[in-house]
């Protein structure tokens, strides 16, 4: 029997939006029927290139389109909640870029809307789909290093403020700096690798030392029409206490005086061994080796795992489509609450930094 194509709309024309658009176009039985964005020339060009029948300058018009099954959101963070809630209330499933929202309370409105509508709300955490992270996840899950008790993870840049003067550095629009922007990825892959332990408390510090002086922007310099003052941190560190006695230390920075090459990493110590993944070059490096440190018979048995590259946004979009097309009884397990827990931890970190104390969740 013939199955009606899944009709999808994509909101946002930047790099992330184009990743969604191309991923949907590669899936059989999915039609991108609408595209929305404010860059008129780019909107027209992407619409022509990908044969999208309807284009809109306003996201409000896209979510009102009859017969829309799903919406992808790839716009500035302050718009995630209003777009998601509007789309969910119209009966569409939603895939949103990270972070889910500026705050946990704002994220809660999205989760509540998904539950009320009985629709899927998923959030893009593409780095857990890296091949090296998946290999490390398998290693830990099968008990190769015993019980993990301490982990450290980071994503650090030298000159990586997204755009000086843009919405990224406006606290009201972004919700924060690197902690909420790239730090949420670090938090996600860390908790994922550790088996999703509950975070009990957070002790954090934030620093704004380079951005306010116009430093740290590199080739991501401001556009002439963007004039926001620098209102967020440019570096953050956090120490998290986990259920079961484990701990996790995080560092994330857009701009720090360090090696000029960006790095993403994760180190874990377990009762029977340890492991480390370090992608020097960060997102420009599709896969890195995983170093494993253990012993057999009292002698070192260290070894290296060579992984294959992951599929990033393509994998995320495919999983979202599979859930939407699958048993509606499984939709409630994809209500955004996973991303909401990350938002609550980020909230606790910012509160800890403001109040100079450990904050319980």
UniProtKB/TrEMBL annotation:
UniProt keyword Oxidoreductase, yes or no: yes
**One Pfam family matching this protein:** GFO_IDH_MocA
Q: Which domain of life is it from?
A: Bacteria
Ordered alphabetically, the record's keywords are: Oxidoreductase
Annotated Gfo/Idh/MocA-like oxidoreductase N-terminal domain ranges read 6-123
Q: Where is the GFO/IDH/MocA-like oxidoreductase domain?
A: 135-275
What InterPro entries does the record point to? Answer: Gfo/Idh/MocA-like_OxRdtase_N, Gfo/Idh/MocA_oxidrdct_glycsds, GFO_IDH_MocA-like_dom, NAD(P)-bd_dom_sf
Q: What is this protein called?
A: Gfo/Idh/MocA family oxidoreductase
Species of origin: Kineococcus glutinatus
Taxonomic classification: Bacteria, Bacillati, Actinomycetota, Actinomycetes, Kineosporiales
